[in-house]
Amino acid sequence: MTPGLELRDPTAESASALRPRTPPLATLDGATVALMDIGKMRGDEFIDRIEQLCRERGVATRRYKKPTNTRVAPRDMIADIASTCSAVVIALSDCGSCTSCSTHDLNDFDKRGLAGVSVLTEEFRHAFEQQKAAIGLDAAAIYVPHPMQNKTTDELHAFAEQSIDRILAAICSAVEPSPLERAA
Amino acid sequence: MPHPVPENGLVVFAKRACETCAMVESVLGELARSGQALTIFTQDDPGFPASLRPVDDTTLEQSFRFDVEAVPTVIRLEDGRETARTFGWNRTEWESITGITGLGEGLPAMRPGCGSKSREPGVHEQLFARYGDTGLTSRRITLDAWDDEMEACFERGWTDGLPVVPPTDARILRMLEGTRLRPDEFIGEVPPNLSPITVEKVAVNAVMAGCRPDYMPVVLAALEAALQPEFTMHGLLCTTCFSGPIIVVNGPIARRIGMNSGINCLGQGNRANATIGRALQLIVRNIGGGRPGELDRAVLGGPGKYTFCFAEDESDPTWQPLAQARGIAPGRDAVTLFQGDGIQGFVDQRSRTPQELTRSLAMSLLAVAHPKLCEFTNAMLVLAPEHYAIFRDAGWDRARIERELHAAMVRPGKDVIQGAHGVGEGVAASRRDEMIAKFWPEGLLIVHAGGQAGLFSAICAGWTGGRFRHESKPVTREITA
Fold first, then answer.
1. Strand B309-311 with B244-250, pairing
2. How far apart are alpha carbons B31 and A163 in whole angstroms?
3. CA distance B133 to chain A (A)
4. Cβ of A10 and B286 within 8 Å?
5. Helix or strand or coil: residue B412?
6. Shortest CA distance to A120 belongs to which of A169, A171, A159, A77?
7. How far is B147 from chain A (nearest CA, A)?
8. Neighbour-count burial of A182, counting CB atoms closer than 10 A to its CB (0-12 exposed, 13-18 middle, 19+ buried)
9. Nearest to residue B373, comparing CAs of B436, B298, B327?
10. CB of B85 within 8 A of CB of B66?
11. How far is B194 from chain A (nearest CA, A)?
12. Has domain B9-119 been given CATH number 3.20.20.140?
């Protein structure tokens, strides 16, 4: 992130400079979760497994794919997700433009009242923190190992298995990540 | 990194656009040939003066650091410390500073220079923000280079729904120039969160509201008035009613900062009217945390909650301005804050005598809050010049108008008690046999304002919190900061 204009906080600074995010859902029963593929290579393999794991857990999902990871999602896709889903998982960011655009998408969903989480690779933890500070949203993220482009499909599926409960816990307060996942 | 400046030698600041600078180009050549260390900073054209290898100071950083007020400026440095300075062309002084005689043969003995670019309007604060120690303590919010700063302010929930001016250091510093108070001075605690506010935070919000620095004293006085316990700002902002603070400005400052007390003064189009009221509301929102739907619980609200601020027309010497009626000495500046709603128009194009007009105004004023509610709210009457002229021409002054209006609004209890005339609303049934006034004697505030043509005045209903006569009152405060 390139620093831009610097402003001064007009508030009493009694709270974080970040806007609290839309709280996680109380339950996933009856909820539909959007799985938004940001369009980056190999991300679909990760999301395929996330989709299966959701199905095994009885979580209804709808699958979306952005035309490109280098831009924010098309307006009609955002509107469709917001009108049909109550939570969103955005995956899988492993570059700067992915991280920036997907965080803006996450913010867009948040403002429409969707509980959301972004999945990124470890390398982009700092970029995500910077972007969410610039946007001003206390956005949620789950990280998987970096790099992912040189992994086998099985390895990407394993990433999904290791992170599924953390991802669901980020969008639903009733889900508890397993101790193993929490450690991750 | 700024260009290094030698510990010893001469430093010159110049710009091509300055005729005197151009005139002394040959003199600068003489200085260069003298063998002394010479650094020439150029403010506008990095190629000027071409023959002397000038140092580009188009960022004005060195001009700011050396606090250059005019060009050309010549400074002598010894062991890194400034020991002498002159500006403009003055042969004697240049010879004294440089130690070289016979400089500028053929030139006049002296010629004034031009203003330094670093001192142009608005530039100095920007340079101060960039290179100086601003002393500002509010939390820094750094945007991404690609972010839209207007959208960033919306994203953070800092606005009332309209765009705000992004609060950059340069703008805040300029705003602080508008008051004698120190940035860290404590003003009070802003409800509903009762968060402390300093002059700096007032300035940040005034920037966002779009204020000019010379509005700051009015904004500060309005805030101080709003924070007086008897103004009950806390209840006013959280209320389910329509009301918000209405600010009336009196005194010479209203004219000095260009406030509108005439045509459309309760409407749009005047920067001071619009932004002073808005600044107070942004402070309530951003510092106090009073946001609609959270603790601001207005059923409907009102457009005045964006801003409602105007000046009184004090041009008619027969009219006693509101602030003076409320204890402020003539010629002093003051704000009066009234807890009020939007306007109810009063149309009367037939009354010719003060008695007729009084009865007519009373009919409309009786409708405030509800025709059968009495001693329940206050009211503000904005009396238009043509209506006032009917009173004035009959020799009625403010006190007489108030007295006659109150008298015209006294009604038998049996007409206004709950249930009377088939309407449940009204005063307590126990008051059936009393004569009941619509407002308390101090509960009607009359302001003279508006365009010169039009028999249209305005009534602003007061907030229902005004029924607690001794707990919630309008507040007048002198503008001093």
1. parallel
2. 73
3. 15
4. yes
5. strand
6. A159
7. 7
8. exposed
9. B436
10. no
11. 10
12. no
Cβ neighbours around A13 below 10 Å, total? 14
Q: Which of A41-45, B132-136, B144-148, B254-258 has the lowest mean pLDDT?
A: B144-148
Contact check, Cβ <8 Å, A12/B138: no
Residues B378, B445: contact at Cβ < 8 Å? yes
Secondary structure (DSSP) of B190-245: ETTTTEEEEHHHHHHHHHHHT--GGGHHHHHHHHHHHTSGGG-HHHHHH-SSS-EE
Q: What is the dihedral of CA B428, B429, B433, B437, to 10 degrees?
A: 30
Partners of B417 in beta bridges: B427
CB-based contact (8 Å) between A136 and chain B? yes
8-state DSSP, B350: S
Assigned token pair, B416 = 């206004």
B51: which DSSP letter? G
**Helices H / strands E in chain B, number of each:** 17, 21
| B222 touches B180 (CB < 8 A) | no
Report the C-alpha gap between B394 and B392 in whole angstroms.
5
DSSP chain A: --EEEEEE--S---S-SSBPPPPPBS--TT-EEEEEE-S-TTHHHHHHHHHHHHHHTT-EEEEEE-S-TTSPPPHHHHHHHHHH-SEEEEEEE-SHHHHHHHHHHHHHHHHTT-EEEEEEEGGGHHHHHHHHHHHTB---EEEE-S--TTS-HHHHHHHHHHHHHHHHHHHBTT----HHHHH-
Distance CA A9, CA A104 (A): 21
Q: Does B168 touch chain A (CB under 8 A)?
A: yes
Q: Widest CA span of chain A, in angstroms?
A: 50
Class of domain A32-183: alpha beta
Q: Is B159 at the interface with chain A, CB within 8 A?
A: no
Q: Cβ of B141 and A11 within 8 Å?
A: no
Cα radius of gyration rounded to whole Å, chain A = 16
Search chain B and give the residue with CA nearest A8: B140
> Which of A6, A8, A104 is best to mutate for the B interface (most B CBs within 10 A)?
A8
Give the start-to-end residue ranges of the domains of chain A.
Answer: 32-183
Judged by a CB distance cut-off of 8 A, whether residue A104 touches chain B is no
Q: Which of B139, B140, B147 sits opposite A4 (nearest CB)?
A: B147
> Would strands B55-56 and B70-71 be described as parallel, antiparallel, or unpaired?
unpaired
* Angle of helix B271-286 versus helix B216-226 axis, rounded to 10: 50
Check: complex ipTM more than 0.90: no
Identify any residues that bridge with B98 across adjacent strands, giving them in sequence order: none
Q: How far apart are CA B220 and CA B24, in angstroms?
A: 49
B141 and chain A in contact, CB less than 8 A: yes
The pLDDT tens digits along chain A (184 residues) read 567 899 999 999 987 788 899 999 999 999 999 999 999 889 999 999 999 999 999 999 999 999 988 888 999 999 999 999 999 999 999 988 888 889 989 999 999 999 999 999 999 998 898 888 877 899 999 999 999 989 999 999 999 999 999 999 999 999 987 665 555 5
B112 torsion bin: left (phi>0), alpha (psi -120 to 50), beta (else): beta
Mutate to test the interface with B, among A2, A11, A14 (most CBs of B within 10 A): A11
CB B316, CB B262: distance < 8 Å:
no
Q: Which residues of A touch B172 (CB under 8 A)?
A: 8
Look at A12 and B169 and tell me if their CB atoms are within 8 Å: no
Q: Which of B180, B322, B339, B338 is nearest to B251 (CA)?
A: B322
Q: Tell me the pLDDT band of B368, cut-offs 50, 70 and 90.
A: very high
